[in-house]
Amino acid sequence: MYKTKVNASHNFDISEEDAKQLDVVSTSKNTYHILQNNQSIKAKVLRSDFNEKTYSVMVNNNTYEVSIQDTLDQQIASLGFALGASKKINDIKAPMPGLILEINVNEGQEVKEDDPLLILEAMKMENVLNSPRDGVIKSLKVKQGEAVDKNALLIEFE
Fold first, then answer.
1. Cβ atoms 79, 96 nearer than 8 A
2. Residue where a domain terminates, one of 55, 86, 117
3. 11 beta partners
4. Residue 84: which region, alpha, beta or left (left: phi > 0; alpha: psi -120 to 50)?
5. Does the pLDDT of residue 94 top 70, yes or no?
6. If you average pLDDT over residues 102-116, what whole number do you get?
7. Which of 21, 63, 78, 124 has the highest CB neighbour count under 10 A?
8. 52/106 same-domain check
């Protein structure tokens, strides 16, 4: 059973069977065509937050804020725990050895999730490291042109 809340005011319970019976076709990335009661509905996922399980969805030109909890989410919430609380990332480490080509942020700068932080060249490929969350840059531990080892601390968040 999925507990769904739309615009923080409308609550719906959706069974797995109901979810499986939806007639949904993906037409492009994050865009869907839904057929319900012989009516065509266009939907687009504008924003998604996997840890919080929240989504901003546009349906027929109306935008809705949706949160979805599955059975595990509901059990965790009933125990008083927050899902994703342990996933708060406070630092960025080098995923592989390489060379810092470019740094796109400064100390004290506020960043949003998925903002590009820096570019790491490894094995002749440029790898853009994006912010895993919204936050403020506490410190930069590397400089442009610096060679780093795998797991070297690159950036700390406040």
1. no
2. 86
3. 5
4. left
5. yes
6. 93
7. 63
8. no
Residue-range definition of the domain harbouring residue 121:
88-157
Write out the two tokens for 68. Answer: 């979805």
Per-residue pLDDT at 3 exceeds 80: yes
User: End of a domain among 86, 102, 118?
Assistant: 86
Residue 114 belongs to a domain with what CATH number? 2.40.50.100
Beta bridge pairs of residue 134 = none
**Tally of domains in the chain:** 2
Q: Are residues 96 and 60 in the same domain?
A: no
Phi, psi of 17 (to 5 degrees): -60, -45
Q: Give the pLDDT band of residue 80 (cuts 50, 70, 90).
A: low
What does pTM read for this prediction?
A: 0.47
| Sequence-separated (6 or more) residues with CB below 8 Å from residue 60 | 41, 42
Model confidence pLDDT, tens digit, residues 11-51:
888 888 887 778 888 888 889 988 888 888 889 999 888 77
- Give residue 30's identity as a one-letter amino acid code: N
